[in-house]
Amino acid sequence: MELAIERPLPKPTSADYASARLLEALVEARLALDFLRRGLTRNAAGKAFQAWKAVLAALLKLELERLKALAKAEEEKRWLEERAVARVPTTKMLSLSQLLKEVGYREVPAWTSLALDLHDYQYHGPDPDMALSKYRTREEAAYFIRSLVEVVAEYAERLKSRVAWTKEHEEAYKALVGEL
Questions:
Q1: Which Pfam families did the record assign (predicted)?
Q2: pLDDT of 30
Q3: 10 has a pLDDT exceeding 80
Q4: Handedness of CA 40, 120, 30, 7 (dihedral sign)
Q5: What is the pLDDT of residue 4?
Q6: How far apart are CA 158 and CA 173, in angstroms?
Q7: How far apart are CA 147 and CA 135, in angstroms?
């Protein structure tokens, strides 16, 4: 049996897109915990980052019309619709988070900032001088990886009534919560 997470993503214009990205977030978050358990902190940081990026994609899709209403120019509306939802470019994650804050997701910029710090940690590892990474030790990074994974689970619970929540979503959610 092929898992939904292994199938190609639906087109960003599809109603199932947010649902697929939420399932992706749950699976990536669980992988982050698995890597943490095995002592692979940098890999866990990457998975936690990917999980949060998938949550952002789901939020952007679910709130697209409200976000487009905030856009000042047609070009910005088009970019949101054609690029932001589909790719969630790492370089634009903070500005996209600010837009989500404007439509009611107050805490999203802070969690996005944490995810970006973990992304840096993934590439640079622990850094006692904190020049390349915000985390001096693996233990510090592990604490924040776990924190971000908990938030991914909270968002999944919060959004499940707004997406096509399948048996696969429920199993992934229960498995993740069971490991937290």
A1: PaREP1
A2: 98
A3: no
A4: negative
A5: 62
A6: 12
A7: 14
Whole domain around residue 153: which residue ranges? 16-179
- Read off the DSSP letter of residue 1: -
Instruction: Check: CB of residue 35 under 8 Å from CB of residue 47.
Output: yes
Q: Is residue 84 part of a domain?
A: yes
Burial of 25 (C-beta count, 10 Å sphere; 0-12/13-18/19+): buried
Q: In degrees rounded to 5, what are phi and psi of residue 87? A: -110, -30
**For residue 104, how many other CB atoms are within 10 A of its CB?**
9
Tell me if 93 is assigned to some domain: yes
> Does pLDDT of 14 surpass 80?
no
Q: What is the CATH number of the domain that holds 80?
A: 1.20.120.330
Q: How far apart are the first and last CA of the chain?
A: 27
Residue 152 lies in a domain: yes
Specify the pTM: 0.95
Percent of the chain with pLDDT over 70: 97
Residue 19 near residue 89, CB atoms below 8 Å: no
Q: How confident is the model at residue 1 (pLDDT cuts 50, 70, 90)?
A: very low
Angle between helices 167-179 and 17-37 (to 10 degrees): 30
> pLDDT by residue (tens digit) across 138-175?
999 999 999 999 999 999 999 999 999 999 999 999 99
